## 1
Amino acid sequence: MGYNKVGTRCVGNACRFSLCEGKLLFSELKKHMTTGPLHAAYLVTGEDAFLASDAVARFRALAEPMPDFNLSELTAPESAAPIIEACESLPLGGDKRVVIVRQCKADLSPLMGYLSDPCPSTVLVFCAEKPESNYTKILGKLTVVDCAKLDTKTVLSWIAVKSKTFGASVKENAARLLIDYCAGDMSRVSAELQKLCAFRYGGVIEEADVVALTAPTLDFKIFALSEAVALRQSQKAAAVLKNMLESGVSPLLLLGMLYGHFRRLLYVSITPGYERMPADLGVKEYAVRKAKEQASRFTPVKLKKICDSLQEADYEVKSGKMNDKTALELAVFKALSA
C-alpha cells in the first residue's frame, strides 16, 4: 500500500480516502461527505453545540446499516490505546467503521503512528469545543470541522427552509429578530422556530409573533440598551432598562455586564484587526462579531467615557454612597449624554 502525489491512500486501484489535513466549515461538510473522498480523521470543534451535534450525526450515519458493529463511541479514554484498537478493527456488513471520541484529555502522541498509516475503512472523529494541548501533536493529521456560529445570511436561509418543513413561513425581519433574540445559538433558534411555526401553522410568522412568544437573552437586552445609547434614544434606553430590572436581574450585576460590554466595544474599536480577540476577551466569536458591528456606532473617546462612568457607578455602590438601582440609572443617563 502507498500514497499518490496528492496524499490519497490507494488500495489496489481504488482510492479510499484523502489524508490531506485542512479545515471545513460546517456548511461545507455535507458536500464534502457526499462528493468525497473522506479523510482519515476529523476534529469537530466550535462553540455551537447544535451544529457540532449535527456534524457528529452525519459521521455516525456512515456506520449504517450495522452501527452495532461499525460504530465505536469513546468518552474520556485514559490513553490512546483504546482509540487505536477501535480504529484498527474492520467493518462488518458495511464499508466504513466510525470511531467517535469525546472529552479526551489523554496523551494522543501515540496516535501519530496510526495516523501516518491509517486503516482505509475507518473514519476517526474527535469532538471538542476547544481542543486542549494534548491535540497539538496530531492536529496536522486532522481535518477540522469548524462549528462556530453561522453568519446571519446562512441562518436566514436555514430558517426559510426549515420553517416550511414545520408548516409555516417567516418574514425576513422576523427571522432576523429571532436570530438576535437567540444570540445566534442554533439550538435555541431551532427550538423557538418550531414553537413559532406551531403557533402560526399554515401561516406567516411576523416580527410581532417573535416579540410575543420568544424571550430575548440578557445579552440581547444589553446590546439593545447599548444600541439605544449609541443612537441617543433615551425613551428606548429607559424601556429596555426597565424591562431588565423587572426581569429580576440584580442592578449591580447589570452594572457589571454593561461595563464588560462597553469595555469589549472599546477594545474592538481600538484593535479592529486583532485575530486573537475572542480568546483574549474570553467570549465567543459571535459576540466579537456583534461587538464590532456596534462599536462602529461610537467613537473610542465616547466608549472610554462610558466605561469610566460605569466603573465610577460600581465604586459608588460598593462604597455605600449610592444604592445599586440609582447608580445604574444614573450611569445609563450619563452614557446617553456622553
## 2
Amino acid sequence: MENYIDPSKEGFQAFKDLPRDEPIHMLNLLKFREKAEYPDGHEHHGKDWSGRRAYKEYGATSGPIFRRVGGSIVWRGAFQAMVTGPQVMQWHDGFVAQYPNSGAFFEMIKDPDYQLAVINRTAALVDSRLMRFKPGEGGEAFG
C-alpha cells in the first residue's frame, strides 16, 4: 500500500485546471506517525514529539495564514471505524477546510511562512488524503 503526504504532479495539475473563482471544500484525511520525523537541523528535531503533536504545531503555525486568506474549518471529526472500504484505510482525524476560492489556497501555499509551517505537517503524517469538492447544499435526504 502506498502512502501519500504531498500532492502528485498530476493531482495538483487537475486541481489547477478546475475553476478558480468559486468556493471550494478540501477534505483532509490524516494518519499520524507514532513519532514525528523532522529533518536534521530543524528546530523540532530531537524533541521526541508524536505525529499528532507535530500536526498541532502545523495548525498553530499555518493557522494565521489560513485565516488571512479566508479559510475556515466547516467540519472536523475523529475517525472511529471503516464501514465501507478497505480495513487497511484507517485514519486518525479528518476535516473539511473551506476556502473562498482556489486562489486563496494558492496564496496560502505560496506564503513563505506557510512553507516553513508545512514542514510540521510532513513530519507529522505517515499517510493522508486531500480531495477537492465543490460545496453543495445540505438537506434531509441522500442524493
